[in-house]
Amino acid sequence: MTRWRARRLAPVLAAGACALNLAACDLTPDARRAARQAQIDPPRLWLAEAVGPSGRVLRAVEVCADRRLHEGFARADPEVNDQPCRATSPIVSKPGLYAMRCEAVGQSFAVAVTSEGDLRRDFKVRYALTPLESGRGPFVQTLRYRLLGSCPAGWRIGDHAPSERAPLG
After folding, report:
1. CA–CA separation, 166 vs 57, rounded Å?
2. How far apart, in whole angstroms, are the C-alpha atoms of residue 120 and residue 102?
3. Bridge partner residues of 103 (DSSP)
4. Dist CA 73 CA 48 (whole Å)
5. What's phi and psi for 40, nearest 5 deg?
6. pLDDT digits over 19-34, tens only?
7. What CA–CA distance (Å, rounded) separates 149 from 64?
8. pTM for the full predicted model
9. pLDDT in tens, 71-120
10. DSSP 151
């Protein structure tokens, strides 16, 4: 095999798509796209812990995320009774804050998402959805995200599973 051919096959081999028979190897378009994506923006494994008011971990999930999914951890696309809450105001999006007003199921809500910590490694996010007309208090959820490392072999972006790294409540 010439040096040129070896370099040309390096991405295929790195993607783990071919085993021993290189002549029979034919990557599908999806596999080629996934291999390119993994080189440009390698997915990372995150631990997402739902934290109760006392700070106790209620449940934990490991999720494989690329940059786009990771950036969504500190934003919200809220739903009410499985219906999207459609923005009715400009969205405020700046470091540490994502906020808007929205409407779903005929009601108006205020959405506030605040984050603190190092968004690249370990941070907490507080999601609050407040009904504006009912006089009820906000629905609040706090999640702590911690970077664990590389995604397990065979996992794709968006794959997730319960975690055994944190106590379940």
Report:
1. 7
2. 29
3. 86, 108
4. 9
5. -80, -45
6. 333 333 456 776 676 6
7. 10
8. 0.73
9. 999 988 889 899 999 999 999 999 999 999 999 999 999 999 999 999 99
10. P
